[in-house]
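Technical appendix A lists one of the benchmark inputs used to test multi-chain prediction within the project. The record comprises two sequence entries:
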Amino acid sequence: MKQQLPGGVIRQNRKLADGRDIFYYDNSDISRDAVDTRNEVAQPGIGHLRLDVLVNEWVAVASHRQHRIFLPPKQLCPLCASTKDKQTEIPDSDYEVVVFTNRAPALTNPGENWSLPQLAGLDTPNPDAAGACEVVCYTSDHESSFAKLSVKQIRAVLEAWKDRDKTLSTLSYIEHVFPFENRGEEVGVTISHPHGQIYAYSFIPPRVEKMLSAAQEHLKKTGRVLLDDVIKREIKDERRIIAKNSEWIAYVPYAARYPFEIHVAPLRGVAHMNQLDETQSESFAPIAKEVLSRLDGVFGIEMAYIASWYQSPVSIGQDCMRLHWQIVSVRRQPGKLKYLSGSESGMGAFIMDLDPEQSADQLRAVKL
Amino acid sequence: MKQQLPGGVIRQNRKLADGRDIFYYDNSDISRDAVDTRNEVAQPGIGHLRLDVLVNEWVAVASHRQHRIFLPPKQLCPLCASTKDKQTEIPDSDYEVVVFTNRAPALTNPGENWSLPQLAGLDTPNPDAAGACEVVCYTSDHESSFAKLSVKQIRAVLEAWKDRDKTLSTLSYIEHVFPFENRGEEVGVTISHPHGQIYAYSFIPPRVEKMLSAAQEHLKKTGRVLLDDVIKREIKDERRIIAKNSEWIAYVPYAARYPFEIHVAPLRGVAHMNQLDETQSESFAPIAKEVLSRLDGVFGIEMAYIASWYQSPVSIGQDCMRLHWQIVSVRRQPGKLKYLSGSESGMGAFIMDLDPEQSADQLRAVKL
């Protein structure tokens, strides 16, 4: 069955040999009927969550993941389309955008009657690691990157994100949906094919919890939405703005934590990705391409980055939290990385080695 | 003037050519009178703090640090003792343990009348980046490591930590003292000479804030100290204990976030490092050596790690927070690192690829 999505994107749901879901998202009406003929063993079992009582944070223990695939050579890439000689994760011989369930998911469907236990310090039980981990392949072209995708292709990726956000948000055991991309070996990417991931958590992740609390406090104090005010300040200051169109703005945040950190947000705020309307969705690709091209242009090398979509949790915060995209690069100079060491990792206290305004200057100076 | 410290350690305070402090800590009574004859320019200015309003966290902007020294070859190591031909950061031709002010400190003395502003969302002013950044050289032997230090030498390091903790805690602009070590290029170490650092913050760092809040809640609910109860559970469970002596215990925590994570705590809890008594101080070196040797033994390679001392802030939390040492290694297999990517870095949600019990088994199995 074909599902028509906004932007002319068509979704087709299929199954992999081991029962995992795979979704094709296409700009054209093409049938995706190739069958996964691999002899697949059953999926690994579910992990569990443990409460770190020192900070009241959940840790997902997923010991079945240790032996997952690691930097395969191109001819063994599991994210390329299948060929006669080689079956990959994508049964078809070509694709535009696909999403499928991670082969070694840290978080997965817990079955019936799962619920997150109340925090009770050392007496907190260990629930199954409920949630979802999905892989989002941006293109069948192994050598491409998000920045190099066509506008039409980025729209298909966006529709895939929106579609999965919408569906995952309806699952009883999902509390927060997080689309992201790790890019570059420097941030631990184990497969170089252009792709991102979606993690859907059964709890509010620690950083979102902090954002929620700051946004709630701001709403209570001022009656306004925090991100709206943040964007107002960026527009007023001007100096950190990197790119702007009728619907989106991109800036180095006032208190950037990384030498190259860019936030991208819709000017008309929405709480969830799946609430982006047609105009917003259509205007996303140009700014996304510009921002990522500027990032690659700073040193003339493909920048390693982590690109994270922040939005409101599923069941709380829609009144005060707003969707935005934070792209952080761990590179501070051509031969130097920004590491999360003692202060950042041990204390959570970031030291930023570059003025955010200087970082914005460098990003704006890139000739596209 | 020589200051007698516990454990027979003697401290001598000196100045570097540019006015920075240097402290020698020696096990023997030797005079450290060598003079720093370098032509030194004045220290770089002070950075500032910016509030990241999305999460209510301070970020230290220290743009003068960008060009700090990066992996110098051994013959140019600034942490070796000085020779006739080469003046380093340590004027003397030999030393046991030294502490000196970082040449490019992210946090520094703000002068008179500094105070941290109240958080006021987007209206929060930018204070000077008050605090201290110090370098702790563990030994003059460039090729050594903390694990290889003699028991006597580790005692001198501990006395240096205690002494600096005590002094820094008295400064009006210091709210939290954090001794730590980054070891290995994998965690961004720019100088391979065995050394650690002390960061002293003018605010409660985010991770300590979370620890404080969890500890306060536990005290309120149970009347007990959280870390005491954590240690009780570890002793009862047994399975994650790595090493123990009459005063200290070392274990893989129940909710470990890294494949190899070890916590080391005194059995008789103290809030601050400088409160460790003679018996505790004397028993620290053997367990520290054992734990770090086990870590290096797991794969037979020098493990990259971040070793962080957690303690109570200066002015709050002494009733509920307890000193302990968290050592986390980013290595998960000989050729594989654990990266803080999307889930950890973007969401603060850790995925642990190894059962903590399995990790403890591997650490215990190391033949010393």
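Residues 247 and 280 of chain B are 6 Å apart (CA to CA). Chain B touches chain A through 84 residues (CB under 8 Å). Comparable benchmark entries are summarised in Table A2.
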